């Protein structure tokens, strides 16, 4: 999709003031960067090089299969290593692929919302799927929780998991620190569950289910460590609600 045809983003039929136009352009550049695991500066550099060469621009990552002369493709097809059904519709698919993972830019909205969102319909996905995927949030896990709207042909990491359930995955945390995965955006009005166990229980998994035990044990250890830490400054002012945003 060429930039000039991307009317859903820029809305050329309706005049925009300069500030609103700049905001939309920046948001679109962030989308492109996040879809490819790049910085915005790298995307701008690639787009400028493409323009200078006279080649067409492809700005929608869903159309990378057609052509993308200036940007690395967001399509990183993987090899399916395991498929486990959770019910007659949903299942958990394990995918092995090369290169740094691509993250969803924000927790999915729409009809099938990201299960990490507190405003998602509980039970939209079967409880068995959350039992099967619980190890992604274990301490020292090497597995990642995939976005339900992605596929083996274009796998993406769940934004909600990155924000609330990935702290035990040292590989992912290092990629985040190095900027090889961009931290997903969390809209101001969106609240997420505090951790995997809370999210899974809200979706039908029993709190005493064995698959959640390692997560609950770590939660208990973290709470004990927090309670043993002497308060600094005004406790009322220093206290933060984890659901307000930031990486979990």
List the helices and strands and how they pair.
Blueprint: H1 7-10, H2 18-36, H3 40-53, E1 79-85, E2 91-96, H4 127-133, H5 159-164, H6 170-177, H7 196-202, H8 213-228, H9 235-238
Antiparallel strand pairs: 1-2
Helix pairs in contact: 2-3
Number of beta-strand segments: 2
Q: Estimate percent helicity.
A: 25-40%
Report the total helices.
Answer: 9
Quickly give the structural class: mainly alpha
Give the strand content. Answer: 5-15%
Biggest sheet details: 2 strands, antiparallel
Radius of gyration: 20 Å
Rough shape? globular
> How confident is the prediction overall: mean pLDDT?
75
Strand order in space, largest sheet:
1-2
What is the succession of H and E elements?
Answer: HHHEEHHHHHH
Given as residue ranges, the uncertain stretches (5+ residues, pLDDT < 50) are: 1-14, 58-75, 234-248
**Multimerization status:** single chain
Report on this structure:
This protein has 248 residues and is mainly alpha-helical. It is 34% helix and 5% strand. A two-stranded antiparallel ribbon has the order 1-2. Helix 2 crosses helix 3 (40-53). The chain is globular.
